[in-house]
């Protein structure tokens, strides 16, 4: 078993940022959380959408798994245009912006504070985005339009840390397993998919846990009781607070994250409107 603290130290070293100036385009970068995340200032995406800036942001996202870009004044169509710099965009069956299918509009009264067992507002419950899709998004961007006076944070958990801190026996046991993910929570016509329990990041080569409580229903070829017990154990390990960065939103924050590396949870502890614009960048088949 890899000692947990040495993993955190490794992540801290990776994150080692006390406000450094990054690369050629002069972005100001500092750590957002110990487990993951960097805050990037000195960029105005409405203006600085050049290839060098996008290349720098790509590198930063790969290193830190999540980027906070404060004070981005982008319309929905500008957000869509920015998203297309990262790859093809996916639509989402649940919620679409009135101006474009490629930006999701997330908000509304029905999403406010309510606790009923098993009922989550959009994004509530730990998940990586759209894992029910055959080629789920590698990157999600969320842009804060309207925020409640308090509450409404989003929590993000580093799934490389989650994988690396599993005991060796469990890592060996899950290394070749696949799991069934369902999209039926969004409608009977929405697809289901099977993906590996451990995903290897195409760019970094690092392994990550890739199962989640919202969409992953069972392990393929395993008796139901055993599958449930294993998934339950993996879900609770994957979301240990030590792996988490909790983002407290400011208006016009744009947060980008890598769904191959992190899970997230929209915390529904607010009683006023909270509105987000969202884009998702399509990936390949998870391996
Ligand atoms: O509203 C949020 O904080 C996150 C919602 C979510 O899960 C998502 O945008 O993928
Ligand atoms: Fe999500």
Number of domains: 1
Q: Runs with pLDDT <50, length 5+? A: none
Order of helices and strands: HEEEHEHEEEEHHEEEEEHEEEE
How many distinct beta strands? Answer: 17
Q: What count of helical segments does DSSP give?
A: 6
What would the CATH topology be? Double-stranded beta-helix
Instruction: Indicate the radius of gyration in whole angstroms.
Output: 18 Å
Give a quick rundown of the structure.
The protein is an alpha+beta fold and 287 residues long. It has a single domain, classed as Double-stranded beta-helix. The protein is built from six helices and 17 strands.
Write the layout of secondary structure elements.
Elements: H1 4-15, E1 20-22, E2 27-31, E3 38-41, H2 51-64, E4 66-69, H3 76-84, E5 89-90, E6 104-106, E7 137-146, E8 154-158, H4 159-164, H5 168-174, E9 178-182, E10 192-196, E11 198-200, E12 207-209, E13 216-219, H6 224-238, E14 244-247, E15 254-258, E16 262-266, E17 275-282
Parallel strand pairs: 3-4
Antiparallel strand pairs: 1-2, 2-3, 4-15, 5-17, 6-17, 7-15, 7-17, 8-14, 8-16, 9-10, 9-13, 11-12
Bound molecules: 2-oxoglutaric acid and fe (ii) ion.
Structure, explained:
The chain has one domain: Clavaminate synthase-like (Double-stranded beta-helix), CATH 3.60.130.10. The two termini are 24 Å apart. The protein is of the alpha+beta class and 287 residues long. It is 22% helix and 27% strand. The strands form 4 sheets. Strands 1, 2, 3, 4, 5, 6, 7, 15 and 17 form a 9-stranded mixed sheet that branches. The mean pLDDT is 89. A hairpin with a 4-residue loop joins β1 and β2. The structure holds 2-oxoglutaric acid and fe (ii) ion. The site of 2-oxoglutaric acid has 11 residues, from β7, β16 and β17.
């Amino acid at each position: 078993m890899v000692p947990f603290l040495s993993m955190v130290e490794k992540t801290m070293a990776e994150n080692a940022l006390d406000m450094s100036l990054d690369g050629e385009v002069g972005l100001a970068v500092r750590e957002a959380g110990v487990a993951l995340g960097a805050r990037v200032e000195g960029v105005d995406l409405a203006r600085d959408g050049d290839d060098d800036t996008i290349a720098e942001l790509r590198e930063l996202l790969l290193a830190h798994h999540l980027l906070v870009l404060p004070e981005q004044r982008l319309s929905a169509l500008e957000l869509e245009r920015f998203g297309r710099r990262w790859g093809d965009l996916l639509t989402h069956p649940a919620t679409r912006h009135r101006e474009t299918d490629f930006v999701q509009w997330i908000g509304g009264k029905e999403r406010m504070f309510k606790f009923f067992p098993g009922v989550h507002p959009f994004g509530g419950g730990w998940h990586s985005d759209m894992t029910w899709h055959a080629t789920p998004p590698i990157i999600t961007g969320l842009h804060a339009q309207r925020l409640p006076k308090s509450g409404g944070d989003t929590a993000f958990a580093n799934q490389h840390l989650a994988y690396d801190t599993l005991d060796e026996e469990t890592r060996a046991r899950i290394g070749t397993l696949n799991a069934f993910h369902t999209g039926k929570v969004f409608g009977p016509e929405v697809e289901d998919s099977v993906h590996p329990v451990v995903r290897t990041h195409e760019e970094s080569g690092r392994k990550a846990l890739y199962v989640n409580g919202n969409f992953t229903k069972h392990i393929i070829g395993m008796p139901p009781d055993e599958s449930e017990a294993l998934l339950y154990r993996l879900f609770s390990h994957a979301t240990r607070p030590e792996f988490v960065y909790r983002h407290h939103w400011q208006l016009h924050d744009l947060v980008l994250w890598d769904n191959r590396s992190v899970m997230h949870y929209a915390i529904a502890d607010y009683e006023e409107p909270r509105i987000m614009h969202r884009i998702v960048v399509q990936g390949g088949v998870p391996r």
